[in-house]
Specification:
Helix content is about 40%, strand content about 15%. The protein is an alpha+beta fold. It folds into three domains: about 1-70, no CATH class; about 90-200 and about 215-260, no CATH class; about 265-405, no CATH class. The longest helix is centred in the middle third of the chain and has 24 residues, at about 130-155. It starts with a helix and ends in a 7-residue tail after the last strand.
Length: about 400
């Protein structure tokens, strides 16, 4: 009788998640299997399973005090889309009263900037912030201005180099643009209308994309914000962190955002480390890259990344059949798999990715789309990592078209 009553209860996904959160364990076959809170007296408990659930809640999901102290768990994610990126910097409302601290955010869209490029402050010398609606309004205006300038130049017969962002219509009739870079003259036309620090960051990143120098960037990236309307107009908290990023393209979305498409070097290295330590791939890593332990194998693979990427740019196919590339098939496939899945064709072209399975491929993803208005600061780092997306997608050379390479910029 009791079982019949509980079956529909535990069949509900929402209720099952609720029970998991309060410490109850359920299974598809038997319903409730552990009840540490004694919500249902007399129900048989499995101690080992109870301990496992408690450890999961504490260590992985971040409900325990130790996890919260270490900055882990859902509450400290910078972007919900990227489960491996937690905040390493948490700025309180008190911190945001200090112009020296807020100076690190001036390239983003939340701080009000004066015509001379300095941060605007109130009568007490505290930085002035823009409300969320104004940030979004500015983003949309900036995006629309770029699209309009491109459209006018194209209508006048002007052409741009290979890889330039191209206009296209979405299925719902809105404009968007994707590509590798934006012609510098377009960014120049925006000067004096928008945050000069934001435009400077866009211009510098864009220049490295256009020149193909493959610069790695340190981007201070912060989370989406909610404006505190009570009392003084300021954000209650800003959380974020430095992200070592390899830009490979620019996207102007139909929703009015400018995104810098990047490979997260932090995620790429973590993926290499996973391969080097994993029971199923550690031997393959050692055979491909050498090394006496996982650390040495990972470092050897990391050192080959510039050559792997530069070969794409220089039209040299990576792989054992082309010794001039300096990259074997095993090295190529493992590096490509550590970058992660970008599309289905890449999985078919890479036996390592294909063997990971769907769940692991979802986690093994270093692609990050960074919104320009949430990049508070951008510092150029080491060059020599020119990422060509179409070559990574196909696990070989970029697609050839008449007149040169076609840079395929697909939505994921």
């Amino acid at each position: 009788m009791m079982g019949a009553m509980l079956d529909p209860l535990f069949g509900s996904t929402g209720l099952r998640k609720f029970f998991h959160r309060i410490g109850l364990a359920t299974s598809e076959e038997t319903g409730l299997v552990a009840d540490p809170t004694n919500l249902f007296p007399g129900l048989k408990e499995v101690p080992a399973l109870t301990r496992m659930i408690e450890k999961y809640n504490s260590d992985v999901r971040g409900y325990g005090p130790q996890a919260r102290r270490e900055g882990r768990g859902r509450g400290n994610l910078v972007d919900p889309a990227f489960k491996d990126e937690v905040a390493t910097v948490n700025l309180t409302a008190k911190d945001l009263e200090n112009p020296a601290i807020v100076n690190r955010l001036k390239a983003g869209g939340v701080v009000k900037i004066k015509d001379d490029g300095t941060i605007e402050t109130d009568v007490e010398g505290r930085p002035v912030f823009l409300p969320t609606r104004e940030v979004n309004k500015n983003n949309k205006k900036l995006s629309n201005d770029i699209l309009e300038i491109i459209r006018k130049k194209e209508d006048a017969g002007e052409t741009f180099g290979e890889g330039h962002v191209s206009l296209e219509k979405t299925v719902d009739g809105k404009d968007r643009a994707t590509g590798v870079f934006i012609d510098p003259s377009i960014i120049d036309q925006l000067q004096g209308k928008y945050n000069p620090h934001q435009l400077a960051a866009l211009k510098q990143i864009n220049q490295t994309l256009r020149n193909g120098t493959g610069d790695v960037w340190d981007l201070f990236y912060y989370s989406a914000l909610k404006y505190n309307k009570a009392g003084r107009k300021v954000y209650g908290q800003i959380k974020g962190g430095d992200r070592t990023s390899l830009p490979f393209g620019i996207e102007i979305t139909k929703d009015g955002n400018i995104n810098i498409q990047t490979i997260s070097m932090d995620a790429f290295i973590k993926n290499l480390e996973w391969f080097a330590k994993s029971k199923g791939y550690s031997q393959k890593m050692a055979q491909a890259f050498g090394g006496m332990n996982p650390f040495e194998s990972t470092q050897a693979a990391l050192k080959l990344l510039p050559k792997y990427l530069q070969n794409h740019l220089n039209k040299i196919e990576n792989g054992t059949k082309n010794p001039a590339s300096g990259i074997t098939d095993g090295q190529r496939d493992l590096i490509n798999a550590a970058i992660g899945r970008m599309n289905a064709d890449q999985v078919k072209a890479n036996p390592v990715l294909e063997g990971l399975g769907d769940r692991r491929r979802q986690r093994q993803q270093s692609y990050r789309s960074r919104r320009l208005d949430r990049i508070g600061n951008a510092v150029r780092g080491e060059p020599g990592y020119p990422a060509v997306k179409s070559a990574i997608e196909q696990n070989k050379l970029p697609m050839r078209m008449e007149g040169g390479f076609k840079y395929l910029q697909r939505l994921f």
